[in-house]
Amino acid sequence: MSRTARAVSMLALISAASVLAACSDDSTADSPDSSERVDTSASASVPSSEAVEAEAPKVVDPLDPTSVVNDPCGALSSSQLDQLGLTEGEERPNEGLESGACRWQRATESLDSVSLSVVVENEDGLNALYADKGSYEYFEPTEVSGYPAVYASLLDSRDSGICDLWIGVNDHEVVHIMTNLASEKNADASCGLAADAADAVITTLGS
After folding, report:
1. Where are the domains of the chain?
2. pTM for the full model?
3. Tens-binned pLDDT, residue by residue, of the chain (207 aa)
4. How far is residue 126's CA from residue 139's CA, in Å, rounded to a whole number?
5. Do 136 and 150 form a contact (C-beta atoms < 8 A)?
6. Other CB atoms closer than 10 Å to residue 158's CB: what's the count?
7. Which long-range contacts (CB under 8 A, 24 or more apart) does 19-22 make?
8. Residue 163: how many other CB atoms lie within 10 Å
């Protein structure tokens, strides 16, 4: 596994996600429960810049994620939060990464949440995931609002309500959405919410 993809994989393990931190620590795979992994989803190291062979679809209409890097909770507007049933976001640090992260809950008393971060240090974009797709328990290419994306994680916790979605907003930068639906524990519901959130983020970036 390349260092670039290990970077990705660490973010996956720590946050029940997958891909993009340039150091690996197998102990994170033993994270005891999904809520802990969500709380630490921002932790990742800067990925390596080593090139990988292009395999992911090209991004036809690149987006600049700078606004979300600087203000991750601004990725979803008030109206979008209402549509998604989410409360105001809480910004979290992304140790070792340039960008921060944001977490939105479905309700103040709910454990259901959506987390977002942008990885700008990885010059290979979605290709980092494709390069080591055999390492993940699930790797399902998809498309969100015309942008190439992948449902992927080293740990398949979708039936426990956790889904990881990676969207290539341009050929070098990736938006990571992770949903944790403690109340539903349903793959269709968790991955469906991730896609809806990703669609909203793309609308924000394109406006």
Report:
1. 57-206
2. 0.78
3. 444 444 444 444 334 333 343 323 333 333 334 333 333 333 222 333 445 566 899 999 999 999 999 899 999 999 999 999 999 999 987 665 667 899 999 987 788 999 999 988 778 899 999 998 999 999 999 999 999 999 999 999 999 999 999 999 999 999 999 999 988 888 899 999 999 999 999 999 998
4. 12
5. no
6. 25
7. 19/128, 19/129, 19/152, 19/166, 19/174, 19/176, 20/44, 20/47, 20/119, 20/122, 20/128, 20/174, 20/176, 21/45, 21/46, 21/47, 21/96, 22/46, 22/47, 22/48
8. 30
The residue to which tokens 């660490």 are assigned: 10
Asked if residues 116 and 72 have their Cβ atoms less than 8 Å apart, the reply is yes
Q: What DSSP line would sit under the chain, residue for residue?
A: --HHHHHHHHHHHHHT-----SS--GGGGG---HHHHHHTTT--PPPP-------SPP-SS----HHHHH-GGGGS-HHHHHHHT----EEE--TTSSS-EEEEESSTT---EEEEEEE-S-TTTTHHHHHTGGGSSEEEEEEETTEEEEEEESS--GGGTEEEEEEESSSS-EEEEEEE-TTT--HHHHHHHHHHHHHHHHHHHH-
The class that CATH gives domain 57-206 is alpha beta
Closest to 173 (Cα-Cα) out of 117, 134, 133: 117
The 10 Å Cβ neighbour count of residue 49 is 12
